[in-house]
Structures are given as structure tokens and as C-alpha cells.
Amino acid sequence: MRITNRHTVRTLQTLCVTVTAALVATGCGRSEDSGPGKDAPAEIGAGKAKGKVVMWSMGDTDKSLVSLAKEFEQQNPDVDVKITPVPWDAAHDKLTTAIASGNVPDMSVIGTTWMAELAAMNGFQATPTSIKSSDFYPGQWDTTKYKETSYGVPFIANTMVVYYRTDLTEKAGIKGALAGDWDGYVKDLKAIQDTAGKQNPKMRNATGWNIGFNSWIFWLPLVWQQGGDIYEESTKKFTFDSPAVAEALKHYASIPKQGLAPTDKTESLPAFQGGQNATYQEGPSVVGSLRKDTPKLESVWKTMPLPYSKQPAGFAGGSDLAVFKDAKNSDAAWKFTKFLSEPANLAAYAKDSGAMPPSPAAWDEAQLSNDEKMKAFDEQLKVSKAPPAITTWQQIADAIDSELEKLSLGKATVAQVQKALQSKATSIGAGR
């Protein structure tokens, strides 16, 4: 899933569709030795790419991607790359329908949280061994995997950091970044909250808050920071009943419970820009938004990695590149995929589009760490993780969102939420 800001996140809501028929259709006639999780890696032939490559991109026309496609065509004179933009809100249905019917393009940009579901539909070719996992941030590479097999290549990285305004935090006696440990961080938020309406007349809350859709993105890292998880791949069981989940829910609930964040679904970015909130968590797109819309704040806003208790961790999201199993020109599609994933091209795409590269080498190539406001993202990407690669993930995520909203609004206790999540997840199951 490509996560940018709360507005964009909402446009990526996966539509509730039934894919059982599609799974049956795509599974007919397949050998038991092949199929999702058992596929042999695709091979990339020698020589230059030839023929027509049809690619779907997500969202509006991606001028940065089109520019790279033209460069690829110059290097491969006998290839013709056709890129078709697909609106994010229609993409999930379009992808599942295309895979079920076999009427697919050669390749596509795929939201990371859709990878497992679409791979389970026997939709993608396994990633060639010539594309190395070690070239990417570990969490970003894991977004391509289903049943321990990679079915794509990371293209756009995403993770969350803390944004904070020094003009507001310094009035609370905080010099520089807030504390990096969880207890110290909450203590700093309390100090900031104490200045609301006093030293900071416009400020309402110390931090912003995400309630409802995709709030799981902000909570799940708290579980990982406890050394736990919500799903155990080896036993195929959910672990919402674990001590790590209980502790993560307590941490999460403590922020709104103490009045440190709004619970009225206030949009965090406008509140941050207007000085109503002093801090909040979000992805890299906010960097561009702040610089474009409120340049006068450039000298006062900064970023820092997420605070943690036992170990650092964050969410790995974004978009991957995948080649379809029924692609008409898979060799040229893989060659274009490999071209796009080269550090220099990932860096060029990042510079032109404002997206974040999923490769440390591309990060260095783009010299992103020269920007003080981007350093926190590099630190976070190194420790970020992908959510469980299960085909029912969107249903599980929706259940988490629902229960977290109850917790934030004080309509359920930590124990009640933990019990409800374990029951709901077990009932939903992990899918194929």
C-alpha cells in the first residue's frame, strides 16, 4: 500500500470483494508443484528488451515513471512501453478481475498490502534471482513476499516518523527532539500539553491522532517494539492474546486517555500547520506539503524516528512492481522492472516525484540524508517491518481499526479490545 498522508491513505481503502471464484478459476489445471509459494523464480533473458510492454501505474499519470520509461526505450530501441494510470480507488477490483480473467497487462505498480492476496490468486511471477533482496531495506523487501517467495520488487518505500514544531515544543522546555524512549516521549507530550492555551495560545493538543481507517499503521509498530507480533507464520495462528499486544494497546490508549491528542478525527496536517497540534506521526509526503503550503514554518518543523520501549520498529509500506503470470511479454517486463529498481533510477524517480526509495544505495545516490528533515526516515526504514503476508489482511486491518477506535474513545478497555481482536481474527482466518 502506498501511504502518503491521511487523505491519500483513505483513497487506498481496499474494496470488499469476494475472490473465491477468482481463486478457483486461476487455480484450475495448476500442478501441485507450482502455484503461490512454490513458484520457481522467473528468468531474465540476455540482450535488450523487445516488443510492447503494457504497465499499469496507480493514481494520476506518473510523469516521473513515464520519463524513466522513455529512457528505457532509448536504451532498448526495439521496445515500446505503454503506461496506463489506474485510479487507486478502482485498482483493487481492476487487478482481481484482470487476474481472474487472464486479461492482464505485463506488469503493474501494486500497493504493498495487496501483494499477498494477489499472489495467492496465482497472479504474479516469482522474482528472478538476479534481483537481490540485499539491495533493499529488509522490511520493504518483505512486502513482496508470500509464503516466503518474493513476487515483486520494491519501488516506493513508506514509513512513519514524528513531526514536531520547535516553536511550540521549546515553550515546554524541550530543547531539540522529544525523548526517543516511550516513557520519556509521553512525559514530553504532557509537558507540551501543559502549555496549551497558555504559552501556546492556539494549541489544543500535544499531538495529532489517527482514528478509524488505517489507524492500525500507527499501532502495529508498538507491538513490534515490544518484540511481539499479531500473527505467527509457523503455527498459522493469531497472537492478539499475547503480552506484547496488551502492552502495545496500553501505550496506544494512554495518549488519548490523558487528553494529549484529539479524539474528534481532527485532520492532523492542517492542525499541525495551524499550531493546534505540536507533533504528529506521518509519512514523507508531508515534507513536500509543508514546504509547498507553509514555507514560513520551514525553520521550526523537524522530524525524528518513532519513540520505542524495547526495540525500534516501524511500518514498511508503499508500492511494489510485479510482473503478471499471464504477461504477454514477461521478459521485457522483467527487464524494465530491473531497470526501474537500479539505484540510480530509483534515486532519479525519488528526486523527481518526491517518493522515497526502498533501497539504501538509492537513498545515498539521491543524497537524501543531506536533508536534515529526511534523516529520520532513513533510520526508520532500517528497522521497519511489513504486516503479515496473509490474504485476509484487509479484513484483519479493518477489525483492528474498529477496535482501536473504541479504545481511543474510551468505549472499550484494553482487555476487551485484546479479547475482541483475538476472536475476530481467529474467525476471519489467514486465508490461503
Q: In this structure, how is the largest beta sheet organized?
A: 5 strands, mixed
Shape: globular
**CATH homologous superfamily assignment of the largest domain:** Periplasmic binding protein-like II
Q: What portion of residues belong to β-strands? A: 5-15%
**CA radius of gyration:** 22 Å
**Average pLDDT taken over every residue:** 92
The fold-level CATH name of the largest domain is D-Maltodextrin-Binding Protein, domain 2
CATH arch. level architecture of the largest domain: 3-Layer(aba) Sandwich
Low-confidence stretches: 1-32
Question: Briefly, what CATH class of the largest domain?
Answer: Alpha Beta
| Alpha-beta content class | alpha/beta
Total count of domains: 2
Number of separate helices: 18
Number of E-type strands: 15
